[in-house]
Amino acid sequence: MTDLQSRPTPAPATDDPGTAHVVRRKRPKRMVRRTARHVVMILASIVMIYPLLWMVVSSLRPNDEIFRNPGLFPISFDFSNYARGWESLAQPFSHYLINSTLLVVGCVIGNLVACSLTAYAFARLKFWGRNIAFAIMLMTLMLPIHVVIVPQYIMFSQTGWVNTMLPLILPKFLATDAFFVFLMVQFIRGIPRELDEAARIDGCGHFRIFFQVILPLMLPALATTTIFTFMWMWNDFFGSLIYLTTPDNFTVPLALKSFLDTQGSSDWGAMFAMSVVSLIPLFLVFLFGQRFLIKGFATTGIK
Amino acid sequence: MSAVGELTQLAKSRKKGGPKEKHPDNKSALVFMAPWLLGFFGITLIPMIASFALAFTDYSLLAPPEFTGLSNIKEMIGDSRLHNSLVVTFLYVFVGTPLQLIMALLLAVLLNQGLKGLSFYRSVFYLPSLLGGSVAIAILWRQMFGANGLINQVGAMLGFENLPGWVSNPDTALGTIILLHVWTFGSPMIIFLAGLRQIPEMYYEAAAVDGASKLARFFRITIPLLTPIIFFNVVLQVINAFQSFTQAFVVSGGTGGPSDSTMFYTLYLYIKGFTQFDMGYASAMAWLLLIIVGIFTAINFFVSKFWVFYDD
Prior knowledge:
Distance between the termini of chain B: 13 Å
Order of helices and strands of chain B: HHEEHHHHHHHHHHHH
Structural class of chain B: mainly alpha
Number of strands of chain B: 2
Number of helices of chain B: 14
Number of strands of chain A: 0
Oligomer: heterodimer
Order of helices and strands of chain A: HHHHHHHHHHHHHHH
Helix content of chain B: 55-70%
Largest interface: A-B, 103 and 107 residues
Structural class of chain A: mainly alpha
Mean pLDDT of chain B: 91
Low-confidence stretches of chain A: 1-23
Strand content of chain B: under 5%
Shape of chain A: globular
Largest sheet of chain B: 2 strands, antiparallel
Number of helices of chain A: 15
Shape of chain B: globular
């Protein structure tokens, strides 16, 4: 309160020509500040994106030039790195792309089905122990995978599933990605209850409400889940490293890693070429799914 | 509300007065919850218990587990590679995470100033977060910080000759991985941005009328109102950072080298469990990790009482 009174009166208020002067001076100052801000942002953007651009450019350069040229120009488009990289592993690179695609599709379907069912129960059903189950579900979100990975591995090795994609896909059908359950619960809570109550009065059971009312309205949440599952599983390294043992079953990250093993640091061009290939699907998903990615991220903090 | 917020809310609202609630949907719930229940018991809880039991055994998949009591724990106490891996991981978590979060907050605040081209900048800053966990980026990093890498090429142009190979020098290798971590500040930045959007403009207007400087407004309004979001980011990023693996694995070629300077805890666990097949030891290590992460999360929650400000 005293602040208002003790605040010094601005000096220019006393002489009239001064105020006009201030107004005139303010505009260029703001322009300068705005420009400065953009300059900072653009510089920061360049720093952030430079490594990526440089990798793309390097994938089109002969090896000796990669070690001499930190710049992005001049580019003589030379696709030989791509041809060499594509063929230099046990299988052509397309084989690994197909493996990764199969893995991702399986995981996406699993997450969509299992997480949406679970989320509906948490958001809409009244059942015994719901709050405790929900708290447990949220806590599994923070559980390091290492605590369960050894017994899981033993389990899957006993069922003979090691060196197949089942140990990576099956858990998704059992709603183990708590992030998506949480994301969907949040989303369903935002859908007006009047809608399901109306369906209820019309004689619908929970299954019809789920399939015919909630699920169609959940499309944005399902899209977010699809995109994140895609990105995570496309990048999944730890799980694949543990479960996939023969090159025939390798996914893209494992193929890139075996590149590093076989080529050491001799053929960066080919390695970068295949790295770029491996990032293209992610980049495309990012481009088209950005809206969902950012929303999903902001509400739950999933990575 | 965020997952962390939700948990605190659930913990607060334990006691619910009034008549006992009925559970009319028990039967349908069983069907809807079946996948999760199977997953929770089959893929999470039972393996957790098994992992706890295995921590007291010697097991290599070839013969049945052999109970050895506390010998794994004794071995861990004397295992200097394990101690080193803890130091490496702590350094990574407690240097990398604050740096990453400060970058995230700074750029979120800058982005929130009604700048034109916001969505462009946001995308550019967010992209590394999405790609950063991939093997491709780790390979890029390995080249960038190699002896003939991009960084040294730029260094040579600026007149620094004979720079070392950063990833092959034990003093700098970890630093390069921390830098990669900081580079992926886009994900917490998005959360900060969402939080900044929720601060009512009128607070700033009122403060401006009172003559508060920009800096004062930032520290007196923005930061206090953002504390729940900061807290959320700290909790999540610390938990995530403790589990980092891919970058260390690829940059060091799976060895944690040079001279164990990038031997992250999870990498050592992987080596013990899945290349040396010492599954009992790996389980004991996993439990130590859980305890450490648990302690830091608990500390975070406890300390949060003193600095997190809930506006409700």
